[in-house]
Amino acid sequence: MPSGSSRQQWTLIDTSPLRRLPRPVYFRAYHIAAGTCVRAHKHAWWQFLFARDGLMQVQAGDINFTLPPDYGMWIPPRCAHTLWVGEDVALESLYIERDAIALLPDTGVRVVMVDEFVRAFLHHGCTAIPTRYDPGGPDARKVAVLLDLVQALPDAPFQLPFPTEPRLLQVCLAIQADPHLPHTLADACALALMSSRSFSRHFVKATGMPYHAWRQRMRLLASIEMLRSSASVTDVALTIGYATPSAFIYAFKQLFGTSPSRFTNVAR
Length: 268
What we know:
By secondary structure, this protein is an alpha+beta fold. The chain is built from 9 helices and 11 strands. It folds into 2 domains: 147 residues, Jelly Rolls (Sandwich), CATH 2.60.120.280; 105 residues, Arc Repressor Mutant, subunit A. A 6-stranded mixed sheet has the order 1-3-8-5-6-11, covered by helices on one side. Strands 2-9-4-7-10 form a 5-stranded antiparallel sheet, with helices on one face. Helix 1 runs antiparallel to helix 2. The longest helix has 18 residues.
């Protein structure tokens, strides 16, 4: 669930049922209005989820993902996932039969960086390639090239694993609800009713990350939506608990490889 979602009213919708794909690769493009939650659902095929415009929050299993525009997500077959759309989204996704690509279901959910060429290619596929394209024609060859390209896209650090143990989950949800508060290790231990040593050990085991690293990533992921709403870097830094804008900018660069202002300009 995205940050602050408990204070936002969401319109719940279900996906349109699709029993089978008309071709091994099916292009699906449509708009989702701001304030929409697409209920948990799963497919019998791979999905390459991509938003040409707009930012989404996606929960797949016990991991939450922030998906800005120009980033894509691989969702394996039979993986239940929920979408929260905080702003209008222009979706341009691929549904792909299992035997049409080399990826295996055990690779899990992945967020990848989509370059300008692949972005343009996806848009062409969604707008120009017919649903029932000729399997032996030029469109099929385009699709084959596109599949090679999307499978080679590099990973991006937009995933955040949530623990399932109730005490640890309570701590994580508290950070998600109020990222500006300190949420020190002592605060977390007091909330979870655990010793520092026990909490730290169980947290790493449950999430694969130390507590301080998880807390920082949650704050930085929360900052993306704020930046896209045109909030200043200074306001965002203070809102998510950084003492100075420079400290926030440094942490942002360390995780995302670029500055907040440049990231926002590219993602708009």
